[in-house]
Amino acid sequence: xxxxxxxxxxxxxxxxxxxxxxxxxxxxxxxxxxxxxxxxxxxxxxxxxxxxxxxxxxxxxxxxxxxxxxxxxxxxxxxxxxxxxxx
Length: 87
Known about the structure:
This protein is an all-alpha fold. It is 63% helix and 0% strand. The protein is globular and about 35 Å long.
């Protein structure tokens, strides 16, 4: 199953993450990051335009799996195997 975030670059996913957590928390995270990187993230945010809720959710799942489960998003969103019917 394809993820709604499959077409996004890593930079765009960071931008979606920051948008999703909100301006105040994003500002805290970006406080110690160099100006060039912040400018790149701001450009990525402008390129995104309006975000569908499912894109935000897919990116947040990917980040949570990366940090907490050390798993890629594709594994989390894989189609479940069909249950075998018992005779």
